[in-house]
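We emphasize that the prediction below concerns an isolated chain of 163 residues; any contacts that depend on oligomerization or on bound cofactors are therefore not represented. The input was used exactly as deposited, without trimming of termini.
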Amino acid sequence: MCVQPEEKILPLAEIVSLCESWKSDGKRIVTTNGCFDLVHYGHARYLAAASRLGDRLICAVNSDASVRSLGKGSDRPLFPEQVRAYQVASLAVVDAVVVFSENTPEALLEALRPDIHVKGGDYRPEDLPETKVVERNGGEIQIIPLEPGYSTTAIFERIRKLN
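Result of the prediction step, given as a token string:
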């Protein structure tokens, strides 16, 4: 059975219910979050690696307002949140997608209580504000190395130089 991308993009309340159901079935829940503006090979590899750490992968995508407040640049996000969420949901390794409007995912992670929360190799667990929330609820933080040469910012810079 093929789940369509739009069926994977859900409000937080529905994802919380899904998590509870999955956990009652003994499934390990993995979460990650990010802007996912211009989904590329590095994202695909990262999400595939994250999915292998558990049974279900939930990806939280920063809202447009959240991306702007993170200081990614005046031209970011390039794509609106609905498009970015759809692109992530299109990947088979992703089980559910939620858009969140905060700058950091602590409130979301408090609600979801994942077994594992994943971030890319450009982060350290001790520097992440979400580490305390995840660990307090019995989860762990995992760091996945980045694919060299595949960051959205680097891709944007290469495109800018072409113009």
